[in-house]
UniProtKB/TrEMBL annotation:
Residues 106-128 are annotated as: Disordered. This is ATP-binding protein. InterPro entries: HATPase_C_sf (IPR036890). Gene3D superfamilies: Histidine kinase-like ATPase, C-terminal domain.
């Protein structure tokens, strides 16, 4: 599961910024933390999922596979970090089999209104 995340982050860095795209994968506990930097001085726009859109699905892939995704501005450019679990929390199975479950659990933990529904594949539903 690490290879597609590294590929997408490096591809984005090379496609949307000039200069080098240093990557820094490292083992942190039961996860591989992938960090990729580039010279672009603005945060990336994360688009809503759209199956009809051709291309520009890289960050969707990263967010679906990684445990988290964070981009920070640096003195020169920005750095995206994505930890990827090596095993699932339950049963020590290989991770990445059910990213929707992870996202739904995170949405449930972060919601402030208990009556607000949560869908496993989309997180919190917008309030009407």
């Amino acid at each position: 599961m690490t290879q597609p995340v590294v590929g997408e982050l490096v591809t984005n860095a090379r496609k949307y910024a000039s200069g080098p795209a240093p990557s820094d994968p490292r083992l942190v506990g039961d996860a591989v933390e992938v960090a990729v930097g580039d010279s672009e001085p603005v945060l990336p726009a994360v688009r809503a999922a759209d199956v009809g859109r051709v291309g520009r699905h890289g960050l969707e892939i990263v967010r679906a596979v990684a445990q988290d995704f964070e981009v920070r501005l640096e003195p020169v450019g920005r750095r995206g970090t994505a930890p990827i679990a090596l095993t699932d929390d339950q049963g020590r199975r290989i991770a990445g089999r059910d990213p929707c479950r992870r996202r739904a659990a995170k949405a449930l933990a972060n919601r402030t209104d208990p009556a607000r529904p949560v869908l496993p594949d989309r997180g919190l539903l917008p309030q009407a």
